[in-house]
Amino acid sequence: MALKEKKPNLFQRTKNWWRQTIGELRKVTWPTKEDALALTRIVLIVTVIMSAILGVLDFIFSRLVGLLVG
């Protein structure tokens, strides 16, 4: 009869998960402050532009539906 391997308990699995997570985070190349600010600006600009485009399209389609419905 083969011996079963003992499954690690919840505490051991959680501890192992945290170790692996921290190890992976140490490998990450983090952006500089300037890079982070530049990327944040890009995201905000794209968000504003897309919001405007979607707002205009919503206005146009709601007018078209209003004309069709009555």
Would you kindly provide a written description of the structure presented here, covering whatever features stand out?
Helix content is 79%, strand content 0%. The protein has 2 helices and no strands. The protein has helices at 10-27, 33-69. The radius of gyration is 26 Å and the shape is elongated.
Describe, in short, the structure shown.
It is built from two helices and no strands. With 70 residues, it is an all-alpha fold.
Radius of gyration: 26 Å
Separation, N- and C-terminal Cα atoms? 80 Å
Tell me, briefly, the overall form: elongated
Helix content: over 70%
Low-pLDDT segments:
none
Overall pLDDT: 92
Structural class: mainly alpha
> What is the number of strand segments?
0
Q: Give a quick account of the main beta sheet: strands, pairing sense, barrel closure.
A: none
Number of helices: 2
The H/E string reads HH
- Portion in beta strands: under 5%
Output the keywords.
70 residues, 2 helices, mainly alpha
Tell me the layout of helices and strands.
Blueprint: H1 10-27, H2 33-69
